[in-house]
Request: fold
Amino acid sequence: MAQTVHHSTCALDCPDACAVLVSVEDGRVTRFRGDPAHPVTRGFLCGKVAQYAERVNSPHRLLYPQRRTGAKGEGRFERITWDEAIATIAGRFEDAAARYGSESILPYSYAGTMGYLQGSGMDRRFFHRLGASRLDRTICSGAGVAALNQTLGARTGTEPEQFRHSKLIIAWGANILGTSVHLWPFIVEARRNGARFYTIDPVKNRTGSLSDRHFFINPGSDQALVLAMMHVILGEGLEDRAYIDQYTTGITALREHVRAWTPERAEALTGILRDDIVALAREYATTRPAAIRLNYGVQRTERGGSATCAIAMLPALTGSWKDIGGGLLVSTSGGYHINRAALERPDLQQISLGRDARIVNMSTLGSALTGLSDPPVKAMMVYNSNPAAVVPDQHRVHRGLAREDLFLVVAEQFQTDTADYADILLPSTMFAEHDDLYFAYGHYYMQLARKAAEPPGECKPNSEVFRLLAARMGFTDPCFADSDDDMIRQSLASPHPYLQGVTLERLEREHSVRLNVSPEGEPFQPHAQGFPGTGGRMEFRLDALAYEPPDESRHGTSYNAAFPLEFISPKNDDSMNSTFGNRPTVDAQTAALVMHTLDAGSRGIQDGDPVRVFNGRGNLLLKASVNGAVRPGVVSSPSVRWPKMTPNRQGPNALTSERLADMGGSPAFYNCMVQVERCGD
Ligand SMILES: Nc1nc2c(c(=O)[nH]1)N[C@H]1C(S)=C(S)[C@@H](COP(=O)(O)OP(=O)(O)OC[C@H]3O[C@@H](n4cnc5c(=O)[nH]c(N)nc54)[C@H](O)[C@@H]3O)O[C@H]1N2
Ligand SMILES: Nc1nc2c(c(=O)[nH]1)N[C@H]1C(S)=C(S)[C@@H](COP(=O)(O)OP(=O)(O)OC[C@H]3O[C@@H](n4cnc5c(=O)[nH]c(N)nc54)[C@H](O)[C@@H]3O)O[C@H]1N2
Ligand code: SF4
Ligand SMILES: [Mo]
Reply:
């Protein structure tokens, strides 16, 4: 058999953006491996993608364009041709634009693929030229992005490779083994050299179980912990005066502000014992180098933006940014200064509208579909996303998707809940079946992936679908004829120094090229010499350090004794948001409700019992998993389950609300109060 091996990049929404070797036998994809030559992938893949050939070759893949024949949401379709599909979509978009204005059309996409071309290229050009509403893509990291830009002036952090030099590593709301496993070998190496590894999380997941110490923290209370740590550090003179003098402002006011934040006060809010807070603060301030891996869990709360700001201030207080293996890693995506204007062409909005189009927040899709006027949303196109599963306040979202007067196009790989509501359903390629250019949010290597195999059936890449639509709608701007390679070159044509030397030719040869963030062979230390993005200095902003417990929490203003438990729905190790939700093993994992023995006992619930989790918004039918992974008062369900796989078609977001975090317009998924009861077998 003729076997070939192709370089590719994992396109899933994961910090690691692994370099992948794809084996192809007689045109069929047979195996996915990690590229041993990539400095962060280092030859292995996570469990999800090691089995990706099963997804590529699945008999359940969507292979042909289809038109809905049943009721919305029912999932009955008939096959049509691409020509018919494109003509129908173009016709309906033209009709909506003529009757209600082009802003009645809404694109809806997120990070099904992280590739630039299939994620934010021809699609953006098309919708800009059409004059459609613009989507504010807030659902994952809106609060954190706003917080980091405000506090550090950039979204660049410590390189993963530098963690091997750390002596203390704190995983702060970061389930490293589950969600960014390629940092783990560097942590193992550091620990072999004597480093300690701590976790701060309401859930003691796999990462917490393997830590030297786990600190259970109440959801949404991180700011209180930071304030008390600052109280100890400044009270005991453990701060780095030289770094603070040279690179920060506001220390005098900060000193004053944190005086009242005693560890006793923080203990009551966080659930972490005062002595533990004191010891953690001392250890963090006196161990060098000390690195914090903060992931995006913390910012999925009502205080998530401020909490991210507060945590991001800690390394400046201790001068940890100066150390190789110190500092903070949230995201590295701020290193990728591609030429976005050339890729996405926002200027095209001027042609149709003469101005920029309105912006709709993706996190409140339910309200947008059921409440927006001037104009209402009359047509929507979903790609790279599964809003019927992942968006909060699921009932509202489903009500919106079920609207008879909404024309819905969905481009998908599988028959998701969202696909069930489509009027026109289009079959999409997977990452091994198209070309793309990839950034990462967990390392500094730009990557190029060439198609490894022909797509099955009539699947098409997003870039091609939008080219066809543009042609059908008569958009004649030459940018709609750009090939994928043209778009790659345009994206890389950036004046930013980090992109110097990152060319298509070099990517073609090397597949993966380190951004020019530091001279070759030298580590990248984004804030060793201050904060260029905020004018040189970081401000200890007190507005980000004014803590009030989240409204929807045990200590909050809207506490209601009928719903006394804090429900969080963090990532499941073996899936990727709702992607892989159709795997039976994943469905079983995401059907679990993790509870503490006391909360289970007082409700007559035993390990393995069926339970109903509910609040005023919805009902989840799950299976109790009674163990030591959460504290009393907190329950957790690994997410995001497919609603259609459940008995009552409700996933975790049937419980969550449209309440937003304090910054960036992102959801407060992890502040969600519920009650739990045992239900019949
Ligand atoms: N296996 C797997 N990997 C993934 C994903 C996946 O679904 N599955 N999703 C990908 C995506 S889209 C993203 S954004 C990243 C996210 O990666 P992470 O941010 O690591 O994942 P989360 O589960 O959102 O949150 C991390 C941790 O924060 C904890 N947490 C919740 N609330 C709080 C809080 O108030 N304070 C603190 N300190 N901790 C809290 C959760 O219990 C969880 O363990 O992972 C990516 N990788
Ligand atoms: N309760 C709760 N809800 C959450 C979260 C949580 O932790 N708890 N996490 C939130 C976070 S961090 C995020 S990022 C969002 C993620 O939300 P989404 O971005 O919607 O992510 P997925 O659920 O993985 O759905 C992506 C879909 O894109 C499809 N897809 C993949 N590649 C392509 C392609 O090339 N073309 C097309 N057309 N389709 C493709 C996949 O088949 C998949 O169905 O969910 C959020 N929702
Ligand atoms: S999901 Fe993440 S860890 Fe797994 S292969 Fe993709 S990039 Fe690597
Ligand atoms: Mo995300």
Residues 610 and 681 are 6 Å apart (CA to CA). The pocket of iron/sulfur cluster (ligand 3) is lined by residues 10, 12, 14, 16-18, 45-46, 48-49, 181-182 (CB under 6 Å). The first strand starts at residue 3 and ends at 9.
